[in-house]
Amino acid sequence: MFLQKGMLIVLSGPSGVGKGTVCSLLRHEQPDIIYSVSATTRKPRAGEENGVNYFFKSREEFEKMIKEDQLLEWAEYVGNYYGTPRGFVEQTVQTGKDIILEIEVQGALKVKEKYPEGIFIFLMPPSLAELKNRIIHRGTESDESLMNRLNAARNELQMMKHYDYAVVNDEVSKAVKRIQAIIEAERLRKERILPYYEQWLKEEL
Ligand SMILES: Nc1ncnc2c1ncn2[C@@H]1O[C@H](COP(=O)(O)OP(=O)(O)OP(=O)(O)O)[C@@H](O)[C@H]1O
Ligand SMILES: Nc1nc2c(ncn2[C@@H]2O[C@H](COP(=O)(O)O)[C@@H](O)[C@H]2O)c(=O)[nH]1
């Protein structure tokens, strides 16, 4: 647990919904937001770079990170570990900058337990059939991984109720605009409304 200065934003949702795609455009549109790079034991996909897309680790290295409490959250997802390096997130919010974590649902709910002041956004597919199309057309998964990811998606969709916001990714640019509206509203609440509210409570009537 750490004292919040910048906002911690969690973007989560089932595999293939478009979290990475939406985050790339958001990153372009909103360069003031910092992106957390996760650690994983998954093998790199073509074009992925260590330290840019993920910090790629062996299972032993990842388990050492868990033991040394280096991760803010971690989860085992369809056979691999994924986790958020704690130090970078803590330093970023301490310096007053907003950070976004693009993570799956089990990990997001762990962050919510530790850090309920975070902003939790669930990215939804227009339909399950479209979700399946998107993972297939990405062309990165084996048949087994595809089935595992779709099975996980059914459970993950039920966890949507634990999030602050649900955003449909029908069109990438529209989804990004919705997320930007959420971030703007949350910034206004935090910077312009909460400080006055605390002041009013101290006033003598
Ligand atoms: N709004 C959209 N309409 C059509 N296709 C989309 C849309 N958003 C993303 N896609 C496509 O869907 C596929 C999955 O997107 P992406 O890799 O961003 O998903 P993800 O949620 O990050 O997946 P994972 O959790 O597995 O990393 C990609 O091929 C991407 O181009
Ligand atoms: N709990 C966490 N989940 C993470 C993290 N980084 C990424 N992810 C999620 O894992 C799945 C699979 O990712 P893929 O790159 O293999 O397709 C996806 O939902 C990611 O968002 C993390 O640090 N913690």
UniProtKB/TrEMBL annotation:
ATP binds at G13, P14, S15, G16, V17, G18, K19, G20. GO terms for cellular component: cytosol. GO terms for molecular function: ATP binding; GMP kinase activity. It is an enzyme of class 2 (transferase). It holds the Pfam family Guanylate_kin. It comes from the Bacteria. Its EC number is 2.7.4.8. InterPro entries: GK/Ca_channel_bsu (IPR008145), Guanylate_kin-like_dom (IPR008144), Guanylate_kinase (IPR017665), Guanylate_kinase_CS (IPR020590), P-loop_NTPase (IPR027417). Transmembrane segments: none annotated. Keywords: ATP-binding, Cytoplasm, Kinase, Nucleotide-binding, Transferase. Gene3D superfamilies: Guanylate Kinase phosphate binding domain, P-loop containing nucleotide triphosphate hydrolases. It catalyses: GMP + ATP = GDP + ADP. It is found in: Cytoplasm. Residues 6-184 form the Guanylate kinase-like domain. Essential for recycling GMP and indirectly, cGMP. Belongs to the guanylate kinase family. This is Guanylate kinase. The gene is gmk.
